[in-house]
């Protein structure tokens, strides 16, 4: 792919890191400069969430970083040596005391979005958030359902398609499709 399709990206951690029990599977955050199209790493998840929140109104350029300009070489190159997932722009920053997790499925087919709520429970959809607020009305002035987005990042297929886990998952899906079409 000559030019990565979308503004913000994050690549999942290695499977070894995942096995160590960390639930968050994103290992590195990066943003693409809208002028020179180089990729710059973003040091923390919090910073990434801040720039993602305003991405359309406030597109990212190299000069936003101290002592950095479009003339400097990129921090990382886009290639298939790591898995890339492209996040959606303009996702609201998670409300205080919540954490938004992107968790890669074992067959690398999809990421699931969860929020860890202030009580430690996970919310997987807006309905779960509503349930939390109904059970904990004290939070209603601090947390609104609109601040939650379950939009999933898109996995760049060419960066996973060489993985055996991905191939196995794909083959399984194919079998299912074949089985259901032969039934008809
Ligand atoms: Zn630039």
From TrEMBL:
Residues of the CW-type domain: 23-78
Subcellular locations according to the entry: Nucleus
Region ranges (Disordered): 1-21, 159-184
MF-aspect GO terms: DNA binding; zinc ion binding
Positions of the MBD domain: 84-155
Domain of life of the native organism: Eukaryota
Parts of the chain that traverse the membrane: none
Entry-linked PROSITE patterns: MBD, ZF_CW
Any one Pfam family match given in the protein's UniProt record, by short name: MBD
InterPro entries for this protein: DNA-bd_dom_sf, Methyl_CpG_DNA-bd, Znf_CW
Any one of the GO CC terms: nucleus
Keywords (A to Z) from UniProt: DNA-binding, Metal-binding, Nucleus, Transcription, Transcription regulation, Zinc, Zinc-finger
Designated name of the protein: MBD domain-containing protein
Organism (species): Brachypodium distachyon (Purple false brome)
Source lineage: Eukaryota, Viridiplantae, Streptophyta, Embryophyta, Tracheophyta
